[in-house]
């Protein structure tokens, strides 16, 4: 087994991603209040828990009431299974080479597996025989996403195959909604109609479907009619709701750095590659040793703020000029009392004076970069050390 060893001692690097598991626990609990008693909650902890640490996120979500955990890759599912968490696990994304290596052990640990093609189903059946354990299978149905999943007219064939194989058991059927974050988009109802008709056909071939699940974070928040047997929130559990909501959710990751240098510059001084910004007045600039190699999107250059914490209080300051690989420049203002070493909050929960300015959010950076908070959170790179708060 290969264990990565960081090249840099995290104590010597100023950049930190502060992870607050209690936020994930509270967010999970808050999402659970939206559900009827018979509906279970699957915490999606793929992509290393959206950058928060998969096991940290999983433990926090289970403490908040999640009884399922969802991850894309079987290797992640295996790590969760070995951790001994009190939750059922679902994994859904694999290709033939790694499937033959890891699926037997995954199935042997009782992890449930999604399939989206006849070939994937054959791989699961082969792995189940090797593990000498019946595989619990969730059939993914492509109702319009165009990624994984069988097309609705293929479900009868898949159901018949599962019904004929003693090593396969139908545990669920599911689909992924393309546009649930836009409640006005008719695509969601169209997908639901396709899903329901496909499930009817599947049940005729394979018998009752124990679990049906469609709802991601957005649908969990806005469409109680789609909660069915199980919901699969992801981004909301980390404090970034994809739709406006009154559900109290708070960010679980805070990205920080420190001022490396402060200097005064005159009016008309250029900043950054391509002279992207020129000062409109004499001002004080701050240099922060964090850049796009750490996860800040270069496309957000000159379009977002940060929060600087000084001994005289907190103050928002715009990031100015082009974001570089290792550093950004912020305009502290001509009267700033900030000094080298002062803490800088890029996004998240800065705490501090509740009546003072707050830190920017991952959503703020996403808007500035023309992307989504999911990408902002998962882009925080491995060279940014993680500190899990207790």
TrEMBL record:
Catalysed reactions listed for this entry: L-alanine = D-alanine
Presence of the UniProt keyword Zinc in the record: no
Residues with the N6-(pyridoxal phosphate)lysine modification: 46
SUPFAM superfamilies reported for this sequence: Alanine racemase C-terminal domain-like, PLP-binding barrel
Cellular component GO terms, alphabetical: cytosol
Keywords (A to Z) from UniProt: Isomerase, Pyridoxal phosphate
Example of a GO MF term: alanine racemase activity
Cofactor dependency: pyridoxal 5'-phosphate
Pfam families listed in its UniProt record: Ala_racemase_C, Ala_racemase_N
Its EC number(s): 5.1.1.1
One Gene Ontology biological process: peptidoglycan biosynthetic process
This protein's record includes keyword Nucleus: no
Domain of life: Bacteria
Entry-linked CDD domains: PLPDE_III_AR
Cross-referenced SMART domains: Ala_racemase_C (SM01005)
Active site per the UniProt annotation: 46, 273
Function: Catalyzes the interconversion of L-alanine and D-alanine. May also act on other amino acids.
Family that this chain belongs to: Belongs to the alanine racemase family.
NCBIfam families in alphabetical order: alr
Full protein name: Alanine racemase
Species the sequence originates in: Brachybacterium saurashtrense
